[in-house]
Amino acid sequence: VVFGRADAGSESPEGETDDAGYGDYASQYQEEVAVPKVLAHPDVKVANAFANFPSERFPMGEEAQVLVGLMNTGSKTFNVSAVTGSLNSPFDFSFVVQNFTVMQPGIALRPKDQHSVLYMFTPDARLEAMKFQLCLYAQYEDETGASYTSVFYNETIPIIESSRETSAKIMFVLFLISLIAAGVGIKLYLVWQARDQKAKKKAKKAEAQATASTKTEEERAAEWLTGVVPGAKKEKKGGSSGGSKPRSKKV
Question: Phi and psi of 154, rounded to 5°?
Fold first, then answer.
């Protein structure tokens, strides 16, 4: 297996340390540094299981945990010096997208021994939601100082949006919907209020017209009564002045 290096400060199979903990996201556009081929020792068996993402769908910006089991079936003692990994382009493995933090267990794997370590890595939050090649491996040395590398995971995996980001987007969409609904509600209320005021004005106007019409009819009746019945108007006035008697005419 040939491993690329994200930048000069990243962790490489020779044991260089990346102070930032992971490689540059834009490293896929940088020139790669060739490294020699590394082999696994036949006596060392490595297995793995993802603890918090068993579906092997990894959210960007969230820590993933992988349980790494190591077993020595031979007669030599091995020193497990590093567990690390990288994200690579799914189209060209030599393009390293991100180097992960290097864990240094410092475990002495004696003959017939079994050990397990919990390795944690975090896909960069600036990654796009797409598929990448995930490569995880362990490095160890035997008693003579010969170095070996066992790749225990090398698969294409989907990097997805984090649940926090998805929740934030959902909340933002719901907020926009609530704003739109509130705006529509206010608009409908204003339209209803305008129509209600208009209807009230019409009702008041109709009532005023009806009252005016009633008064006119009463006035017409009074005028007609005055013209037809002689002395009706005087009687009306006399009645209002205290009941004085009408004067009789001489023949």
Answer: -155, 80
Q: Evaluate the CA torsion angle 230, 234, 240, 241 in order and state its sign.
A: negative
* pTM reported for the whole predicted model: 0.55
Distances 33 to 26, 28, 71, 82, 144 between C-alpha atoms, Å: 15, 12, 32, 20, 27
d(CA 83, CA 79): 12
Which whole number is the average pLDDT over 101-120? 95
Whether the CB-CB separation of 126 and 162 falls below 8 Å is answered with: no
- For residue range 116-125, list pLDDT tens digits in order: 999 999 999 9
Identity at 6, one-letter amino acid code = A
DSSP state of 232: H
Specify the DSSP class assigned to residue 145: -
Look up tokens 């006596």; give the residue: 43
Q: Rounded to an integer, what distance in angstroms lies between the CA atom of residue 220 and that of residue 149?
A: 118
Distance CA 158, CA 112 (A): 36
